Amino acid sequence: QLHSDLDKGVGTVKYTLSGDGAGTVFTIDETTGDIHAIRSLDREEKPFYTLRAQAVDVDTKKPLEPESEFIIKVQDINDNEPKFLDGPYVASVPEMSPVGAYVLQVKATDADDPTYGNSARVVYSILQGQPYFSIDPKTGVIRTALPNMDREVKEQYQVLIQAKDMGGQLGGLAGTTTVNVTLTDVNDNPPRFPKSIFHLKVPESSQVGSAIGRIRAVDPDFGKNAEIEYSIVPGDGGNLFDISTDDSTQEGVIRLKKPLDFETKKAYTFKVEASNLHLDHRFHSVGPFKDTATVKINVLDTEEPPVFSKPLYTMEVYEDTPVGTIIGAVTAQDLDAGSSSVRYYIDWKNDVDTFFSIDATEGTIATSELLDRESTAQYNFSIIASKVSNPLLASRVNVVINILDVNEFPPEISVPYETSVCENAKAGQVIQTVTAADRDLSPAGQRFSFRLSPEASNKPNFTVHDYRNNTAGIETRRNGYSRRQQELYFLPVVIEDSSYPVQSSTNTMTIRVCRCDSDGTILSCNVEAIFLPVGLSTGALVAILLCIVILLAIVVLYVALRRQKKKDTLMTSKEDIRDNVIHYDDEGGGEEDTQAFDMGALRNPKAMEESKLRRDIKPEAPRLPRARAEEGAGIQDFIHQRLQENDGDPSAPPYDSLATYAYEGTGSVAESLSSIDSLATEADQDYDYLSDWGPRFKVLAEMFGEEESYHPEKVT
């Protein structure tokens, strides 16, 4: 209750309440000042409330006193039970642990006020799980209560834990939780074989490395504590077998180390030991953590293929061995009871096998072709042996034949075959170190010797110095060399090997003279170096060559122009047809063919001038008056007239000439104008004098001496 000293109880004072929870949790009587809670309070939800109160005058609404603040604290009661916030719990403890071994600590939480009364005082106890475990009532620590709890007997335990407030007194509230405890395994049990003897049956044809049987020892432990290692105790037959552990089943797998042979031994007996890999020293007093059992193996007889006497055959043969030479043999036997004969043959896989053959009965191997070590140095093939009684039973063996070398190739100089020497080289200078190579298979320690050939021994230019270590040096024998005098030197070098028979070869080295600086560095070995001392550079040489090409082009052009000009001078103007000789190289088509030559030449009116003289000869006497064809006269009469004039003209040339007429007429019947038809000179000409001119005119005399002679026709 709130009360102001100014309140006289007459109703003039009004009380107000504000702050945390005012109007919702708490209310105040405005007249009396009594404060009431209007709903239930929970300390765990809100432990206190801060409020403000004031007295106000009813009439003036003014505060009668300053505002005052007060706190309402909620007093706790035991209304919350203890709770295990982390439950249920899972815990583990090793088996065979002693009493009091720590398992787990649990904790319960009480929401009540721990500072007021015993509402939050918690006490722990076990409701289920005794007598195996115990718990500390104050701390909640769980421990083992019995010794030597065995996982193999019981592995899982469920413990029910109670937490009670009020110090465990009557009327207190309680909460419970469950703890699941698992006993973890320790290696407290040795492996044990379920029986003392194991019997196995194994065929003698079993492959080496194959599994022939399994045995198992039992270990009740778990995980790595149950891992078992098996081993064979040394003794009878143990060296033929091996045993290993199957990690998934922990069984001992017995494998074959060597081949079995029923004819040699039919049964084997040995002992196998099983032991734990991970031992616990706390349990050594229990006894040895291992066990033994006996394994008896009976070998079953099977029909087997022939067996070779060796797993691999290696043979050697010289490369010059004649065809058909026996180089070795293979042997296989049938070891079964009532042994069968064996047949041999080569497993043909490629053409290499054709170099050899094998005797099917004896197993001897012979060459079938000539061998060359330089082509193939080693042959590797397989030979198969099968039973005659059962060819399906066969075995194979590899045969390696090494081809031995015969010294048949001479050694040769290794590259390079060409070297160089400086023009300023000194006598005794080494210009090249050479080595040799031999295509033959060189045996260890083979030596090569170097020397000059006899024909080069007396030359003063170069020599060969043998270093006795399969190398030699090319040395100069004089001071200075000149490229202008000789650019290349050829040095024959003789090389011999040390094999039998001795092989040798002569190798010619080319030595090129080069221009070098003072340190011996080569500057140039090409053609340009020869011209450099003269002062001609590469550009100058190119310019000279270009000038020569231009001059040649000018000469060719000049000659072509001269020929063209000469050809043009032979052509005469069409106006003077008599000075013009035209070659057609064609007989033409007769008088009616006007396309074969220019008809204008026969229609030149200027040629008809009376005073026009002949241009082909110089007249020696005055010409006779020329008759002119009268108008209307026939062309045939005109021609005959002119023909007689020319026949009697002393200035006429003694050869055929061309005369032009202004008009030939239409449908001319002039026929031939040849001198054969000349009237005046047929019988007057005597050509017998041609016989007196010598053998050069013999043919001409015979032609004109015939009964019907040909006479040239003269026409003007």
UniProtKB/TrEMBL annotation:
Q: Which Pfam families match?
A: CADH_Y-type_LIR (PF01049), Cadherin (PF00028)
Q: Where does it primarily localize?
A: membrane
The answer on whether this UniProt entry bears the keyword Repeat reads yes
Please provide one cellular component term from the Gene Ontology annotations of this protein: adherens junction
Report the subcellular localization.
Cell membrane
Highest taxon of source? Eukaryota
**What is an example of a GO molecular function annotated in this UniProt entry?**
calcium ion binding
In its keyword annotation, does this UniProt entry include DNA-binding? Answer: no
Q: Which GO terms describe its biological process?
A: adherens junction organization; calcium-dependent cell-cell adhesion via plasma membrane cell adhesion molecules; cell migration; cell morphogenesis; cell-cell adhesion mediated by cadherin; cell-cell junction assembly; homophilic cell adhesion via plasma membrane adhesion molecules
Residues passing through the membrane, by range: 530-561
**Record's bilayer topology term:** Single-pass type I membrane protein
List residues of the Cadherin domain. Answer: 4-84, 85-193, 194-308, 309-413, 413-531
Alphabetically sorted, this entry's keywords are: Calcium, Cell adhesion, Cell membrane, Cleavage on pair of basic residues, Glycoprotein, Membrane, Metal-binding, Phosphoprotein, Repeat, Signal, Transmembrane, Transmembrane helix
The record describes the protein's role as: Cadherins are calcium-dependent cell adhesion proteins. They preferentially interact with themselves in a homophilic manner in connecting cells; cadherins may thus contribute to the sorting of heterogeneous cell types.
Q: Which PANTHER family would you find in this protein's record?
A: CADHERIN-12, CADHERIN-23
- Can you say what this protein is called? Cadherin-12
What gene is it encoded by? Answer: Cdh12
